[in-house]
Amino acid sequence: MSTHRRGVLKALALVAVLVTAILAGCTSGTADEGAAGLQLPNEPDYKGYLDNTDNYDYTHDMRGQEAVTIEVGSKGNMGDYGFGPAAVAVSPGTTVTWVWTGSGGTHNVVADEGTFNSGPPVAEKGTTFEYTFDKPGVYRYACEPHEAMGMKGAIFVTPDQSGGPSSGAGAESGDSSGSESIEYSVNRHLELGHRLG
Amino acid sequence: MNAVTYVRQNTIALRPTLDSMTGARLAAIALATITGGVHLYLYWTQSFVPFLLAGIGFLTMAALVPTTFDHRLLYLGGIPFTAMQVVAWIQLGMPDFQLGVADKTVQLLLICLLGYLYVSERRNEATARVDVETPEPKGAIR
Ligand SMILES: [Cu+2]
Q: Where would one find coiled-coil regions in this protein (chain A) (predicted)?
């Protein structure tokens, strides 16, 4: 290899490193979910709905909390086009509040089955929309302006405190037996163990 | 003109010039600067890399008008580049609807203007070439 060509390659490598550094600088920072929940033992089946949602990592377990916050316009889908986190698991009766970050242009929150709808898209930082999920089930929703780009999310409402959608009895029926609270506290201990360990 | 000379003329030998600056060329600079600015703003607020590329593209287009750059290439390249932006916006679900409509109006005007510039400047060039190559015969009967 001639020295000239080596020099060109070196220059190209330098450019590549610089571009990577700049891109990394742009994408890091903002929008780490506040109370990032742990993963469920069994991931709910969203039937491919979140297949093109690149910020969907797993269903964040936020069961047992009365209020849960989701960012609208967090990093994802090649820009600020994400719900953060994209998928969460909550207990029935939980109020979910979507909070606009002010990034990514205009957004809204619209359930695909019409259960909830924040109205016309808006951009203003600090805008909020809330909905209380009483009925167990899987709620899929999207931001209309960015749905094609993958700005979608899901709320998995489950009375089951022990695990995922198919772990044990009571997952679908929603009965609240005495054992459930015990199970729940055990689960909590395990969670703490996870966090500390 | 061989390829090397051509590339040279449009890259390192490029120089600014206000020769043949017309109202239509000024309008093209204005439109490309507007949509370029809009896209840099969108990149700033939405971090979507294609916005950055489009912004740089349009500002480069505007900057190349008052230079010795091959204008035919500029116009012929600018038309599909701009048309792609319109198509992409529709395909992505027309996000930022109001700003989008305004921006796409600017872009459609720019496409028309680039087409007009291409045709009119080619016609002028052809006329100029004819003038040079076949000077009016002297003493011809009118
Ligand atoms: Cu959106």
A: none
Domain boundaries of chain A, sorted by first residue: 1-36, 38-187
Low-confidence ranges of chain A (pLDDT < 50): 1-3, 5-6, 8-9, 11-34, 164-197
On whether the CB atoms of residues A87 and A58 are closer than 8 A, the answer is: yes
pLDDT, position B20 = 86
The gap from C-alpha A175 to its chain's centroid, in whole angstroms, comes to 27
Cα A129 to ligand 1 centroid, rounded to whole Å: 14
**Residue A146 assigned as binding residue:** yes
A4 is in an annotated binding site: no
Residues from chain B contacting residue A81 (CB–CB below 8 Å): 46, 48
Residues of chain A contacting B, Cβ within 8 Å = 23, 26-27, 75, 78-81, 103-106, 121, 144-149
CATH number at A38-187: 2.60.40.420
The verdict on pTM exceeding 0.90 is no
pLDDT of residue B74 exceeding 70: yes
ipTM of the complex model: 0.82
Strands (E), chain A: 38-39, 60-61, 67-76, 79-84, 87-90, 94-100, 110-111, 128-133, 137-142, 152-157
